[in-house]
Amino acid sequence: MKTIGRVDKADFPELLLSEIDIKIDTGAYTSSIHTHHIREIVIDGEDFIEFQLMDPTHPEYHDKVFKTKRYKRKSVKNSFGKAEERFIVETTIVIFGEEYPIELSLSERSDMKYPVLIGRKLLNRRNQNLYSTRRLVEAGKEKGHEVVVIDHSKCIIELEKRKPKIFYNGIYLNDFDAVIPRIGASVTFYGTAVVRQFEMMKVFTAVESQAL
């Protein structure tokens, strides 16, 4: 089984980048990429963001100017914890042949060793091969626990007042001691319902459903 490490490589097909060095940073929420000559432009009455990637010294550098209207402004904390307003673009990332949507903060990273930083937003996807999930599994096993990664979107809740149940791929989940929820903002509603169901089954949850 392939797993994503702290430092790895990835492709960004829409940005014409392949085998780019990436660094995993669980301290950052948003992923970022080294960019320069960033500016907003208007084409036929529509707003676009225009930018170039990498430095001329980088092996994957090309002087192509990218334009996209799939962007937004967002306040992002830098590595020093200071909030900065940045442009965020939508694109795709390919890791081990699997393609995922990703939002990238356009950032000047010429003084950094790695041109791409991968934050928690991508890592929180329901993929047990990702570094953050794998580390949780490893830490649990080191303590002697049996650890199972479950995609909550595939859980079916059976609402019975006296005996609440959860089924996962047709299997009744009735023998768990604790749950560590890792739920993205886009799926919080159903994820919270699953966590609440575990609570009703008297299973300890590291984060209570009310806090999600």
UniProtKB/TrEMBL annotation:
Record-linked Pfam families: Rimk_N (PF18030), Zn_protease (PF05618)
Domain RimK preATP-grasp positions: 126-212
SUPFAM superfamilies reported in the protein's UniProt record: Acid proteases (SSF50630)
Secretion signal, residue range per the UniProt entry: none
Residue ranges of domain Retropepsin-like aspartic endopeptidase in the record: 6-123
Cofactor: Mg(2+)
Database matches in InterPro entries: Asp_endopeptidase (IPR008503), Peptidase_aspartic_dom_sf (IPR021109), Rimk_N (IPR041107)
Origin superkingdom: Eukaryota
Record-given protein name: Uncharacterized protein
Organism: Cyprideis torosa
